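Dig into what follows:
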Amino acid sequence: MKKTSEKAVILVVIATGISSVVTQLLIIREFLAQLQGNEFVIALILFIWLITGGIGTLLARLVTKRLWRPTAGRFGWLSLSLACLPALQILIIRWLRDVLFIHGSSIGFYSTLGYIFFTVAPYCLLMGFVLPYSLFLLRVEEPDYPGTRIYMTDNLGDVAGGALFSFVLVYMFSPLQAVFLANLLLVAASCFLFVSIRRMYPAAFIGAGLVLVILLAGIYLEPATLAPREGELVHYKESRYGRISVHKDREQYTMFIDGTPVFSSQNLNMAEETIHYPLSQVSNPKNILLISAEGGIMAELQKYRPASVDYVELDPEVSHILFRFGLIKNIPGLNVINQDARAYLASSDKIYDAIVVNLPEPETFQTNRFFTGRFFELARSHLALHGVLGFSVQGFDNYLAEPQCQKISSLYNTVSDYFKYVLLLPGERIFFLCSDNPINADIPACLAEKSISTSYIGGFFYGNLTHERIVGLNNMIDPATPKNIDEFPQLIRLMFLQWFAKFSTSPHGFIAGLAVLLIIYLARIAREEFVLFSTGFMTMGSEILVIFAFQIFFGYIYLQIGLIVTVFLAGLLPGAWFGERMRGRGRLILALTDGLLIILIALFIIAVQHGGDRLPVAVFLIFGFVVSLTCGFQFPVALRLRGGDNPAATRAFSADLIGAAFGTLITSVALIPYFGIIWAAAGLIGLKLASIIVIATGYEKR
């Protein structure tokens, strides 16, 4: 191949890496917005992305060997096809959500898996096909062209794409605008490739023009894809922490965050319960901390004439919109704090008469962190002796299902470690009132004593919250239910199981099926491929650990997901560069790097156990970089041990991707929900110990 064409191929590989990572991050954010911010969706996307990419890599060898020999023209057309798919993907994801499922309904695990697979798989198969195809193309003219060089070139594009997304696109552009800009580079690189081979000009440039039309059409159609079925879209913003939209239906405004309705202008009963249940227990509440808000909540707070109300809202865009659309009003003494509430409590020394938590169900790591022992400890340390903490979870009408009973039991057992008295009040939501002073369950009588009038509580409390219902609910608590702590988020496990129970399904069949496929695959691969499989597993398993730990301790993964992914990609390039220069030492290098990975995970366990949310963000990012650096070191060494030819390169790429896929899924769906962060990390150590045994008992292929 001519030198110009080689440079053109390299540029296409780099541009493909940029496009693929930006697309991956946009797809993750898109599904988070479509599926209520469920972090398990991140793992499912990465699993399908990697497993189908691995299949595409294997297909590349089969297809090019028997049917479709590599040519620069074909490579250019594949790249143009890859450039137009991301815009179509995002449009299809938005359109199919309400076509496949009932509008506004939740979606079960298997439906979510299928939805993600059919929208993501076509792009990932083609992407997995293109990378080895580029290597085979370069080897047509240069049979000894090193596979590690393509691995490093692709990684260079991946890192550039992650940085572009994390520092530019996420702040300045909408999803389909970002897709256009990221894939513009790939279209340009593909055109340069066609120019370098001096043929196919008319058809190639017509194809490139068609791709640009599709990308521009995506930008034009984007507003229509966000319009609600009912009412009108009056505000839309991709903030740093999630997708925010405000819908207007007649006179009612509703704010949605990541597809979930969280604020409404007409929800008087919830505003009254949220404020008056806890504040009725305090004789003269002067200083109040409000964590997030509810429509009409400030008007109810104002009835107590507090001296100060510190309203903490992580996303400044949310608080701005709430005031703009009149969902909450500005009252005397109100102080808006745009900060993570746990971080605020950890850095503040202010004492409050009441802390009111108004957050959604603890079904994601981001919200669960406000229902753990660490948060209750922080809250108790900021309450006066007569102070009260109030929070709520989803309620019930007549029957409390077993998973929900376990959820409130876990919460009760956790918060009881920090407060002498805990009372549960049933209803549409179950309210927890926590204090070191006795709690009066007769809320209307308490309010009457304070001369505070209410509409819903005054008229309906005695009819809905009878003494028998209150006593019955509090007697349902199971003292044996494990407590909810940061390192082992018990509620996440219960919510995960409840996700299946809600749709009368079970995760066990899925896990068993994956286990069978995994055993069959591992039985058919060589020792060096197992090392790469375990390395890919370790890389993505560690990435999932960091993503979930980051969400647990800091709570804003929507913003940081791009940075975390970029850091884990950034270490692979220098790691592969060093590994290429030391590949002659074979098994020794593999064993030493496996040992280093074990040490890194052990240090991660120690840091999480003793530091938790007191660790700086940089610790997690440095950990991710060093893990990926060490993992990148192993690829060229293992590839050399397998011989380095086309079949070896294909199987090496594939083993790395398939290992990464299983590492993503097993860590997120099995290890963390059932065993917690610490034991999940210990599981990764066990896998690398197995890898060392395989290396020690194997032999080098020369």
In short: The domain at 506-702 is CATH 1.20.1250.20 (Growth Hormone; Chain: A;). The first strand starts at residue 232 and ends at 238. The two ends are 29 Å apart (CA to CA).
